[in-house]
Task: structure prediction
Amino acid sequence: MSILEALKARRTIRLFKQIGVSSDDLRDMLDAARQTSCACNGQLLRYVVVKSSDDVKKVFEQTAWAGLVKPRRTPVWGVSAPAAFIAVVGPKDANSMTYADAGAAIQSMQIAAYEKGLGCCWLGAINREKLHGLLGLQEKQEVFFLLAVGVPAEQPVSEDITDPKDVNYYLDDKNQLHIPKLTVDAITRWL
Amino acid sequence: MSILEALKARRTIRLFKQIGVSSDDLRDMLDAARQTSCACNGQLLRYVVVKSSDDVKKVFEQTAWAGLVKPRRTPVWGVSAPAAFIAVVGPKDANSMTYADAGAAIQSMQIAAYEKGLGCCWLGAINREKLHGLLGLQEKQEVFFLLAVGVPAEQPVSEDITDPKDVNYYLDDKNQLHIPKLTVDAITRWL
Result:
């Protein structure tokens, strides 16, 4: 599979097989993250890998999942929950550039994971206050995002749309998740 | 080359051969961008591709390049300037999540370009007010970032560091750019 094919085929995963993820695989994801472009090469982001079952459960309890497809895409602990989390941490007073850096690093990790047969869900609906303590962060740090990681137990598909009103994802009668994505023509002007 | 190897080997490019970039290659980059994760699948980003020489020149004049390695990594029009720009555009009132979305989409485009032998520079030091007019944006839109695209005329290398004070990139006596990157161990804690 080419890199372009992977970039197009990779989808967010919200249901996971109850199989562990190796430290080597997580380390490779972080190796991809650290080599990602960032503003002025400043490298303001830090990572906390949560891998031991007890800690994963505690972090899992501080997450919320896709409201549009509740409860079927809300993973259940011991049944469909992720095997690990990578917390993306930045300075409390960060500007929008550092959030852009975080998005780029997360996309690197997601693509690295995809090549290994792993799936990810980038989570922004998280209890940052509780996580700050759970993850043992410094006062000046904040959790920007969590990346849930595990072996996929679902196969979402994308479908092309041209109207921005149609972006809501949905489950079909076979319980497959459909992700509407605007076509290149719908989002691009050429000069 | 594996995807992980590409994610680790890709570097920002600031000097370009004076060779055009095909519309097909730019379209593939946008195809990767549109399939990238984004908050709530909202797809708030839009793109303007600047490819005609006159327009590329006008946009190029509104950009600033790596201050630390001036003037040797400030491209010169007609000599080392990029062949095209992709402007990443979002809502004027965007929050930090939308900037994270932009970072992720840009990383997708950069990796897609890398596979094609193209190089990119993600630019944040740009004259957004002038670009708003040049790109014909709507009142409620703003240019978040520019992505310069072209055929690389330099081969930067990364080197491992462990001290966040050492992140400044530099040119060696052979005019090769060195990009210090913090090791995985320097940026990660494991729970």
Q: What stands out?
A: The beta strands of chain A are 16-17, 46-50, 84-91, 119-123, 141-152, 157-161, 170-171, 177-182, 188-190. Chain A touches chain B through 71 residues (CB under 8 Å).
